[in-house]
Automatic annotation (TrEMBL):
This is Uncharacterized protein. It comes from the Bacteria.
Length: 276
């Protein structure tokens, strides 16, 4: 008979919570673009449309993958008689994202070279794109969104990480060869604090698969249809009905908001019928 410890160990093994993405994209947008609050929408946890202004960096190198990092530094206070610090304070906490673009497009060129090509136009006769590298480089901030998908159908889980004010802090080497390799566009982005929103990073876990696994992941379950209410005859046989789960609006007014599923019938009568 397995011990209690063995039972607990087995109970903690949630293989469905091992996330291995089958698809991933990185999107970018100007800082003026609204911050994405949720990547999913609707009772089925479907992927939401991105706001206007977001673009896709295109195909990304599989071998280099997308690397997410976090570098923390702290300041310790040590006391006589203690071998460990008696107090620690975080002095730096920087999230990073590194990836290598396979496509040579305006967005990978801009991010890798640190230039703004919005005003550059092709030569009207040859179609050539030419521009000078600035003598003094400027730091360009923009929004970056990693969006990956795990599973499919009702098991789909979406994982996202959003840098609200990302800065390119490092670029990798590029290879020009007729052998193994290609002209790629590698760079590393660090997350800076968006002064309007007040944070640097926003994390996302969603999708229909995630919705079904909330309890297994340690979160309270939800009713996909939203917060409900209950109607019951009180006292029984009286023809009078009471509700539970209604919201007093505004608080203290004695007035209650009409819950979903109730329809005024006829319109304007003040009488309501229960929907299906």
């Amino acid at each position: 008979m397995p011990s209690k410890v063995a039972e607990l160990e087995i109970a903690r093994h949630q293989r469905e919570l091992i996330l291995k993405p089958q698809a991933a994209h990185i999107f970018g947008a100007p800082e003026t673009t609204p911050v994405i609050l949720n990547i999913t929408e609707g009772p089925d946890g479907e992927l939401a449309e991105l706001p206007d202004g977001y673009f896709d960096f295109g195909l990304l190198d599989k071998e280099d993958a997308i690397t997410l990092s976090r570098e923390m530094e702290k300041s310790d206070i040590n006391a006589i008689g203690y071998s460990n610090p008696v107090r620690s304070d975080v002095t730096s906490d920087v999230f990073g994202m590194a990836f290598k673009g396979l496509e040579t497009n305006r967005h990978t060129i801009e991010s890798n070279l640190g230039v703004d090509l919005s005003g550059v136009t092709p030569d009207p006769y040859t179609g050539e794109i030419s521009f000078d590298q600035p003598a003094v480089s400027e730091i360009r901030r923009m929004r970056y969104l990693l969006l990956s998908q795990v599973g499919s159908g009702v098991d789909t889980i979406y994982f996202g990480r959003q840098f609200l004010a990302g800065e390119v802090v490092d670029v990798g080497e590029q290879t020009v060869t007729d052998g193994e390799g290609y002209l790629g566009w590698p760079f590393t982005v660090n997350a800076m604090v968006d002064t309007t929103y007040g944070v640097s990073v926003r994390h996302h876990f969603g999708g229909p698969g995630w919705m079904r696994l909330l309890e297994e992941a340690g979160f309270p379950p939800i009713d996909p249809g939203g917060a409900g209410f209950e109607l019951f005859e009180s006292p029984p046989g009286s023809g009078l009905y009471a509700f539970t789960g209604l919201t007093e609006d505004p608080p203290g007014s004695g007035l209650y908001a009409i819950p979903p599923g109730m329809t005024e019938n006829p319109a304007g009568s003040g009488l309501y019928t229960m929907g299906a």
